[in-house]
Amino acid sequence: MSGKLQFKFKPYTLELKHVFTVAANSRSTTPIVLTEIEYEGITGYGEASMPPYLGESHETVLSFLSKVDLSKFDNPFELDTILSEIDSIAPGNAAAKASIDIALHDLLGKLMNQPWYNIWGINRNNTPYTTFTIGIDTPEVVRQKVKEAGEFKILKVKLGRETDKEMIETIRSVSDTPLSVDVNQGWKDKHAALDMIHWLNERNVLFVEQPMPKTQVDDLAWLTEHSPLPTIGDESVQRLGDVLKAKGVFTGINIKLMKCTGMREAYKMIILARSLGLKVMLGCMTETSCAISAAANLSPLVDWADLDGALLISNDVFEGTKIVDGKVVLSALPGIGVKKIA
Ligand code: MG
After folding, report:
1. Which CATH superfamily is domain 118-340 in?
2. Is the pTM above the cut of 0.90?
C-alpha cells in the first residue's frame, strides 16, 4: 500500500415524492452531502443525510468535512485509527462523520473485492422485511397510499397528533397488514400513552417507536414495563454509549447510521444491544441508495428494518440494495454494494 487517500464532497438536495409529515413538521426536500474517498484508482462512496430536526445542515456538514485531512493516512485499512480521529475533530456532526465512515467502508470492501456482509460473516439471505411509511394525510390520500403499498409486509405510521385513532382506522378500513407506529416523542402523558398502546395492540400493531419525549425517562421505563407491545427507543438512542442507558427504559433500540456516525459504530451497537437482551431495529433517514445499502449490509442481524428511505425520493443517484416484495435484497457488488447512476 503506497497511495494516499483523496477525499471529495459536494452538497445535493433530495426531492421527496410526497410531502412528509411527522409529529413536529412537514417537508418536501432533504439536504444531503455526497462524499468520495479515492485510493489507488478505486473510489468509495458515502453520504450524509440531514433532516432539519437533527441540527445538521449543508453548512454544518460542509464546514466539518472541510476540517478533515485524509491525505496524512496512507493505509485505508487503519479503519479504527482514521475514524477515531475523525470523531475527535468535534462533538456531534454524526451525519458528517457517517459520510466518511460509509465511503471508507465502501473503499475497503472494493479493495478486498467483497461486500461487507461477507466481510462481517453475515448470511445475506437472512434479510428482514422493511416497513414502508404511510405519511400523515387526508383519509382519501391515506387509503390510496395504503393500496399502492400492497407489496410491503409491515406498514409504518407516524402518530403523536390529535388524529392518531382516525389515522389507524383509515388504514384498517382498507388493509389488515401489520403496522409499526412511530410517535416521535408526541405523547406526553404515560397513562394516556398506555391506553393508546392497548388500543393499538388490538389492531395488529407490532411495536411502538419513541412513544414519549426522551427527557421523560422514568415515564418511558414505566410505559415499557406495562406495555403489551415492545417499545423502541429512537430519539433517545444516538450512539454506542446510549445503548446501555436504553436497558430497562425500552424493549429495543432503533439504530441509524446518521445518528451513530456510521457502519463501524452501528455494528458495535448491535452487538452490545444483543448482549443486553434488547431488540434491534435498523432505521434510516430519507437518503439515497448509498446510505441505505450501507445500512442494509447489517440488516440480517436485526429484528426489524425501516429502510424505505430511498423509495421516498425521486432523484436517487445510486443503485444498490433493493426492496423486493417488501424484503431487503442485498446487492452482490463489493463494498457497500452500490453503483453510481447519475
Ligand atoms: Mg423514529
Report:
1. Enolase-like C-terminal domain (3.20.20.120)
2. yes
